[in-house]
Design the sequence.
């Protein structure tokens, strides 16, 4: 299995490693990693390695598939490894910790052991497929120790890491019992990428204050005998492709839009994976407050919330699902009429083509996470808009996208009244102001699109000398 050559263009072969391999045959991708990386990897080519999504008592050999220019290599996990590594450490420790939710962190030693065990398995499995001049790009919090495991096995290729979620401040991170080991693993990468300057600042402060890292003459960091770089690389989308999809409304979406126009109704849309970090309960409450404070808009606006379930094995996700069902039922019960349902709540995946058309047919995009690495939904909503009659983006100040998208209506997702009043402002905003904001936002997301993100990170990683990476 070591004779695979793969296909790559524009430099050394790219090897992407992530928790899950995206299904490159599908047009529906969920999550920032899949949306931001799938199209770019399909174009450049190379290798994509990760978990297949299967849980087997005897995982067997990795599965190898060719999809266009990409060779996908996937492995199954034992059920006990999945429980400890994925449900346990990744999503019951790191996810809440990195989203500033110390109250939800559930650290257990078996979780930590399983996390290390799966990272060891990933390193052992991918190693025979690697070539000496490969560029290796590891993604997200599931695989923080992977570079250290590869280095232990003699891997000297340039290895980059990109964190798709936030990086917490040093005092929050220090609450994790193994925080020094965790960050020490990051030091084994040659380039560490973050979504925002705020996340980068949190990491640099920890590295210098807690781990004694030194800043080199070339702004690199030196710690634990290894020199590495860290930077902010905001992830983007393929703006033109998404805009083109938005312009092709399906018959179903077109009929729904026509019906709302006849009835004089506008639509607020939210699209999120069901997760406590997305601020969905407060979002529903803010919409309810809007209806309380502005009875003149009753029957004139609806909230369409798409929130497919995820990580149902984690109790906190089951809790939020139940809470949202109660809130939507309560608000609809208070305000609905026989021909008007204020909240339409969909709990399944919707194809990206239909999402794009739904964004274009909506007058307000409601994106209010309590904490988010970037949030590509904000950029997709802007990309989908018609400049002749654009919608308005209402965006949380704690989404990474807020660093770039200042022309959105920036709100505090913990302040119900602030969100309600900005929803009303968005619904009343004059056309010229909407167009002015849209022009500025679309220009910015075009500049920092998926291609720019991919190019900037890989240029920085490829620019490191192989001798630096091996040092």
Sequence:
């Amino acid at each position: 299995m070591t004779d695979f050559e793969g296909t790559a263009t524009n430099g050394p072969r790219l090897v992407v490693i992530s928790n899950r391999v995206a299904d490159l045959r599908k047009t529906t991708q969920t999550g920032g990693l899949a949306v931001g990386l799938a199209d770019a990897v399909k174009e450049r080519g190379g290798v994509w390695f990760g978990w297949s999504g299967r849980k087997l008592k005897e995982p067997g050999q990795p599965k190898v598939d060719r999809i266009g220019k990409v060779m996908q290599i996937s492995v199954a996990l034992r059920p006990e490894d999945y429980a400890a590594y994925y449900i346990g450490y990744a999503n019951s420790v790191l996810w809440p910790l990195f989203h500033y939710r110390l109250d939800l962190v559930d650290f257990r030693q078996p979780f930590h052991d399983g996390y290390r065990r799966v990272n060891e398995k990933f390193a052992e499995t991918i190693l025979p497929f690697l070539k000496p001049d490969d560029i290796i790009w590891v993604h997200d919090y599931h695989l923080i120790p992977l570079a250290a495991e590869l280095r232990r096995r003699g891997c000297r290729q340039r290895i980059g890491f990109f964190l798709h979620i936030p990086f917490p401040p040093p005092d929050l991170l220090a609450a994790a019992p193994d925080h020094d080991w965790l960050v020490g693993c990051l030091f084994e990468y040659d380039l560490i990428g973050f979504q925002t300057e705020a996340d980068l600042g949190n990491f640099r402060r920890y590295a210098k204050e807690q781990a004694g890292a030194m800043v080199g003459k070339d702004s690199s960091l030196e710690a634990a005998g290894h020199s590495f770089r860290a930077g902010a690389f905001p992830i983007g989308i393929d703006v033109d492709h998404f805009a083109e999809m938005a312009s092709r409304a399906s018959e179903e979406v077109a009929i729904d839009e026509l019906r709302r126009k006849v009835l004089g109704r506008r639509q607020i849309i939210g699209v999120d994976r069901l997760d406590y970090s997305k601020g969905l309960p407060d979002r529903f409450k803010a919409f309810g407050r809007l209806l309380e404070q502005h009875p003149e808009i009753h029957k004139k606006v609806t909230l369409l919330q798409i929130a497919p379930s995820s990580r149902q094995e984690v109790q906190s996700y089951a809790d939020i699902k139940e809470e949202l069902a109660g809130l939507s039922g309560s608000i609809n019960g208070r305000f609905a009429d026989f021909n008007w349902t204020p909240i339409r709540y969909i709990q399944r995946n919707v194809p990206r083509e239909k999402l794009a058309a739904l964004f274009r047919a909506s007058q307000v995009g409601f994106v209010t996470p309590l904490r988010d690495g970037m949030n590509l939904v904000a950029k997709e909503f802007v990309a989908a808009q018609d400049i002749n009659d654009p919608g308005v983006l209402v965006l949380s100040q704690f989404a990474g996208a807020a660093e770039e998208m200042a022309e959105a209506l920036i709100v505090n997702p913990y302040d119900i009244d602030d969100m309600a009043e900005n929803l009303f402002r968005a619904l009343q905003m004059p056309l010229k102001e909407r167009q002015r904001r849209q022009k500025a936002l679309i220009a910015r997301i075009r500049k920092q699109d998926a291609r720019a993100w991919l190019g900037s990170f890989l240029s920085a990683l490829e620019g490191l000398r192989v001798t630096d990476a091996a040092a």
